[in-house]
Amino acid sequence: MDAERPVVVVANGFGDHLLVLPAMRALAAMFKDRLRLVCAPWAADTFFHSLPFGEVLVMEKLRRSVAADGRTVIGHDFDADPLIGKLIAADLVMVLHPWFSPSLQQLLDGLAPARSIGFSPGYDESLATLCGQHWADRAFQVPRLLDPSLQIDDFAFAPEFAEESCRAAQAVWRQIPTTMRVLVVHADTKNEKMWLAARFARTIQRFLAYHPEFVVFVVGTSNTLRELCRFEARVIPCFGFDLATSMALVGRADLFLGIDSCMLHAADLWRVPGVGLFGPSDPAEFGFRFAPHRHVWADGAMTEIAEHQVIDALESLHAANGKTPRTRRPFGARSTPHSS
């Protein structure tokens, strides 16, 4: 905590930035305006919009680093030299993502901070990555190492987005009568983490048949679900928006249904009750952490998830949490964090 020129580094998938958001908030509060952020070019404006960084530096020529097989992604490489020149005299470097690469080693060697913290043997202090530990809790080990009194729930509140994204989301919500309730669905991501579109559509169809008070917002990039569902008048495609607007749409939902992705993590921080579908990834590490939820886990291929499992999870969650409409907070308003 006595560092004068601290630096925090993060670069990973979209959803990973939401997983580390509580840790990032804690560090920004701890170091006030002197914390410098190193990140992907798109990350600060989208995920860390309201945090008081002293400076934001982007990783130039950021690209995936692959293993010897030419296919397996093991991290990222970037141009370290410009960062070394701008971060001279950094005395504490904290890295919130799990990967380590030659570029990251070059950055650490060039800066030679008095202290470095991360999740691999390449740092002065290498933090444990316990099997089955949620990644939000793993990342939060970094601020807790500096101040053991910190609690993740104090920093795990809803994301805050730029005003233009909030206005765009508000315009969509104004089209929905206040008597209707909303299930937000997110179905598209990497192929291996997607559920079959036909099963998704049939599940939505059954849910809408049971619940005439609901409409469905489909966020993402694919219109397939609306085309497959006979309740198409109550399935509203929300495509073509920037990422922040889509996540803001999620934040006002009564229920969420989706695969392992950034939208699920957004729903979690918004405390939207949700059902998460998992195959190759472990929901204990990448699923819901804060909101009421159900996980359906195939522990392998997504094709192993049956429709009845998902509709049962949705109905169970709705019965436990979904009968009373959620309070529609103004867009950009901070939610009250709590454990669940």
How would you explain this protein's 3D organization?
This protein is α/β, with parallel strands linked by helices and 340 residues long. It has 2 domains: 149 residues, 3-Layer(aba) Sandwich (Rossmann fold); 160 residues, Rossmann fold. The strands form 3 sheets. The protein has a 6-stranded parallel β-sheet with strand order 3-2-1-6-7-8, covered by helices on one side. A 6-stranded parallel β-sheet has the order 11-10-9-12-13-14, sandwiched between helices. The protein has a two-stranded antiparallel sheet with strand order 4-5. β4 and β5 form a beta hairpin. α8 packs parallel to α13 and α10 packs across α11. The radius of gyration is 21 Å and the shape is globular.
Helical percentage: 25-40%
Total helical segments: 13
SSE run = EHHEHEEEHEHEEHHEHEHEHEHEHEH
Percentage of residues in strands:
15-25%
- Based on CA atoms alone, the radius of gyration comes out at 21 Å
Roughly what is the average pLDDT, rounded to an integer?
90
State the end-to-end CA separation: 30 Å
* Main β-sheet, spatial strand arrangement: 3-2-1-6-7-8
Structural class: alpha/beta
Shape-level CATH architecture of the largest domain = 3-Layer(aba) Sandwich
**Unreliably modeled segments:** 333-340
What's the arrangement of secondary structure elements?
Layout: E1 6-10, H1 14-19, H2 21-31, E2 36-39, H3 43-47, E3 55-58, E4 60-66, E5 73-79, H4 80-86, E6 92-95, H5 102-111, E7 115-118, E8 125-126, H6 135-146, H7 163-173, E9 181-186, H8 197-210, E10 214-219, H9 224-228, E11 235-238, H10 243-251, E12 255-259, H11 262-270, E13 274-278, H12 283-286, E14 293-297, H13 307-322
Parallel strand pairs: 1-2, 1-6, 2-3, 6-7, 7-8, 9-10, 9-12, 10-11, 12-13, 13-14
Antiparallel strand pairs: 4-5
Helix pairs in contact: 2-6, 4-5, 7-10, 8-13, 10-11
